[in-house]
Request: fold
Amino acid sequence: MRSRILLLLLLLTVSAQAQKYPQGYFRNPLDIPILLAGNFGECRPNHFHSGLDIKTEGKENFKVHAAADGYISRIKIQNGGFGHALYVQHPNGYTTLYAHLNNFAPEVQKYLRAEQYKRKSWAVDLYLPASKFPVKKGDFIAYSGNTGGSTAPHLHFEIRNNKGHPVNPMLFGFKIKDNIAPKPYKVVFYNLTKSIYRQEPITRTPKKRGSSYVLDSVIMGSNLVGVGIDMFDYMNGTNNTLNFSTAELIMDGEVQCKINLDDISYDVTRYLHAYADHKYKKETGRWVQQFFLLPGNRLTHIYELNKMKGGLEIEDGKAHHVTIKLNDASNNTTTISFYLRFSGTHTSRPACDDGEVFRVNRINTFTHPNVKFSLEAKDLYDDICFTMSEREDLNAYSARYTLSDETIPIHTYFSLYIKPNKPVPFELRNKIAMVYSLDGKDEYGKDAVFDNGWYRASVRTFGEYRLAEDTTPPQIIPMQSRTALLKSDRITFKAKEDITSVVKFDAKIDGEWVPFEQNGDIFYYEFEDKFKKGDHEVVVSATDENGNTESITYTFKR
Reply:
């Protein structure tokens, strides 16, 4: 009887998905079976993963096909991110995105190159009319690659709805072999009477028992408990880790929280840092997804919550039966069961006696003789205890100021002001960078703007900052010998910048501007037919955020 009920529920779930998302409308964009390196809703730095990362056997240049009828509506070329990307608009209101590509179909590639020359910019973002490049389902549109923020060859594939929101492609009926249920690693428990940033959560390791998992009884020193899960999902044929599609937290037979990762727009994706335990991730490298809503988490649409916003009330002291259910998009289910009990003695809430309380959902301003900033009401996800320390730096134009630490996430960029502790020569006024350090190592620097005696930069991370002089231009390094260029189809340079970043890179071959592609600090140009065999001269220039420019002239023979 129980098996029949479960089968009925499964069929109802599949039917509901079919009604919400068209089944069979989109085809596999590749000619090889879909094996995933990443799925929709995975936790990634600063965002939820917004599509499927389809493996390409560790190789590039597989043909990519339009997933359905429509037209190419957008071409975007950028350093990092999606790299070379195409967007196809479909008659049913959905848009598909194909990213980390190499070259496009010949006519599209020809159009792109002409636009790059017209704008004298390799990076472009082109919106196209429906009449420019119409496509039919299955038409060849590009080659797969490894461009942008990709670390291995694959195709990033997205489906976006008519609001522009990425939705889970796994719910559209693609044929993907997966009979492996999610696997839990840790269950994590929080005292929700405290700020999440002012406690060390309790962790427990599930034990396999038959087809499900169990925990020993958990006793908490709080009558309001939050639960998180550290887990991985897998699919047949690949060892890459994936995420669940839906998850439920049930106590005493009633659902307390349900998470549905099927629609996450780019304007809310950074709330990942409120959804997953940012502090735990920084300290352990592991993602813990939380079955409760932090007070500053505006990613509310993925949750169905009890009156305590996912928190478990266990005031009465009895042992409460709790079950976690994890479901992937192929309807493989894992359950974890345990008993949860309140010890009867509250743990004391730590006082903020070493700093200043910053409250969630309000403007928080910090003012010091040499440091000041203001956080918007949406910048924090929970209350924090803000601290600041400083130490001398004789080689900088300010002390090193440590603002709390990087385990506390900030939602938006804020203006950080630092006052120099010694006079800045007038000729250096526009050559000052605000440098961020982590564990004593410089992570990045940003051009700092002089503002009425202060220097200001836009930042989004707590940590250590100082003001430093930046008068050194980027270093331009040829990445091949002139002999090698005789047989090569590309020319490559590295533009190395020590403090800030390269914001402009230009190159001319024989006096004509050419589109050098950027990949991190590497810039390369693949020779076109117009550059024939013989002697050539390339003039390359690179400029950093503080306006320091380096140019070199390089002669070579093809």
